[in-house]
Amino acid sequence: MARGCTLSDQQRDRLDALRLRTDHKDVFRNATIILMTADAQSKFTIAATLGCSASTVDRVRGLYRRKGLAGLRPIKPPGRPPNATAEFRQALRNTVQTDPRSLGYAFTVWTAPRLNAHLGKTSGLSFSDGHIRYLLHQEGFCLHRPKHTLRGKRNEAAHAQAQKLLKRFKKKPLSPMPRRS
Q1: Which domain range does residue 102 map to?
Q2: Residue 38 CA: distances (Å) to CA of 3, 6, 12, 77
Q3: Domain end position, chosen among 72, 102, 118
Q4: Mean pLDDT over each residue of the chain, to the nearest integer
Q5: How many whole angstroms separate alpha carbon 85 and alpha carbon 41?
Q6: Are residues 19 and 64 in the same domain?
Q7: DSSP string for 51-91
Q8: 59 with 22, same domain?
Q9: Residues 141, 96: contact at Cβ < 8 Å?
Q10: Considering the domain boundaries, does residue 60 fall inside one?
Q11: Position 144 in a domain
Q12: How many domains does the chain contain in total?
């Protein structure tokens, strides 16, 4: 698509509609590139205006020339499929929402290593603890370190009495000594 190409009113309307109804920033940018190209703007002007490279403008123009509107939608980049399958993610969600004691564990709070060990036994898939944290975040869970206290598990009256006794035995600050002249 060379500088100053022409678009019919119908093509322009379709590009505008695509640009305004999309939620994807790349589709908006790509449709804008084609509209600006039709308005006879150079690829360097378009690139500077939209904050992309001139090669991106060339690539989008070529995709539009070959595929039309479909070429303006982003292509999923190739790569290895994720090891965390949909079944594993479902098992992760279900396990996190289950009390560990109901599964026969002595602890009450899931940690990434414990969760990883349990899912490794049940699903056969094992990941690093950091990746488990990443997957939990992707699934909408927050992972916090538990704060271990004895509140509610101790005799509170005896604890308060011991705190008072301890306060009596603590060293007191020394009073300042008078200066000798």
Answers
A1: 86-138
A2: 7, 5, 9, 28
A3: 72
A4: 87
A5: 46
A6: yes
A7: T--HHHHHHHHHHHHHHGGGGGSPPPPP-PPPSS-HHHHHH
A8: yes
A9: yes
A10: yes
A11: no
A12: 2
Taking residues 94-121, what's their average pLDDT?
Answer: 92
Per the rule left: phi > 0, alpha: psi between -120 and 50, beta: everything else, 69 is: alpha
| Region 121-137 average pLDDT | 92
pLDDT digits (tens, 9 = 90+) for 36-86: 999 889 989 999 999 999 999 999 999 998 988 888 888 777 788 888 889
121: which 2 tokens? Answer: 């036994």
- Judge whether 40 lies within some domain: yes
Neighbours of 78 (CB within 10 A): 5
66 and 19 together in one domain? yes
Q: Is residue 80 part of a domain?
A: no
Angle in degrees, CA 44, 50, 51, rounded to 5: 85
Q: Which amino acid is at 141?
A: F
pLDDT score of 4:
55
- List of residues 6+ apart from 54 with CB closer than 8 A: 43, 44, 47
